[in-house]
Amino acid sequence: MLEICALASGSNGNCYYIGNEHEAILVDAGISAKQILQRLYSRQLDYRKIRGVFITHEHSDHIRGVRVLTKKLGISAFFTEKTYTASWQRDQPNAFSLFTPGVSFSFKSFTIHPFLKNHDAIEPCSFRIEHAGLSVGVFTDIGVPDENVISNLKKCHAVFLETNYDDEMLWKGSYPYYLKRRIASDVGHLSNKQAFELLHEHADQGLSAVFLSHLSAENNKPEIAFNEFEQLKTRFAIYLTSREEAGIVARINKQ
Ligand SMILES: [Zn+2]
Ligand SMILES: [Zn+2]
């Protein structure tokens, strides 16, 4: 059994909880440590189960709270060497460990599968977290899905998948042109449509739950993203995540 929850998801802050009966990990800590602890408490998730934080890349919406959180909980954060070096000094925790993209490793009762993805950071990674034959993916900040994303998605039973923007809202919106181009580029973010196509073409039978993640406040709306997936709702449960509060705690079991 795995319990999963998006404690925060959006272009202003990301933090995802993945735990079993005894232990848990976080992917990213892009809101304050105080907020992370409050949101865990609000969903009856026990912070004492958290054993480590796995960092995807150095953008502040993914690492803002990591330094204080690791200190408070007495745990380590995991970075690639380049990501650690590229992070602001104020965000660098004292307790950290390094991992190599593409090299899976065991951590407590989990197997961590980190892989490179297309995004405008120094060495951006996504994670598939495995425990007892179940896999959960955290796939956000992806300009365009590549073979790494596709092959890991196929193994997932649940996935936090980026639906950053609606094409029409982005291009008609108020962002400056260079920023619109950056977001829509191959090293920017996944649109609702790109995420839909990825799932439509590549999701495997084992996938039972999809959490629409990392929505932009300016260029997307939860209901627009949710409606984009209408066609797929017979294949798996679709959930929204929130920037304001922790989302639902879902239990993932082997079918
Ligand atoms: Zn981000
Ligand atoms: Zn990013």
Rg calculated over all Cα atoms: 17 Å
Unreliable stretches (pLDDT < 50, length at least 5) are none
Can you count the beta strands?
14
Proportion of strand residues: 25-35%
The residue-averaged pLDDT reads 97
Give the quaternary arrangement of the chains. single chain
User: What is bound: which ligands?
Assistant: zinc ion
Main beta-sheet annotation: 7 strands, mixed
User: How widely separated are the two ends?
Assistant: 11 Å
How does this model look, in words?
- By secondary structure, this protein is α/β, with parallel strands linked by helices.
- It is built from 9 helices and 14 strands.
- The chain has helices spanning 33-42, 60-63, 66-73, 81-86, 147-153, 167-172, 177-184, 192-202, 222-228, and strands spanning 2-8, 15-19, 24-27, 50-54, 76-79, 96-98, 105-107, 110-116, 125-131, 134-139, 158-162, 209-213, 237-240, 250-252.
- Strands 6-5-4-3-2-1-14 form a 7-stranded mixed β-sheet.
- Bound molecules: zinc ion (2 copies).
- The site of one zinc ion (ZN) has 7 residues, from α2.
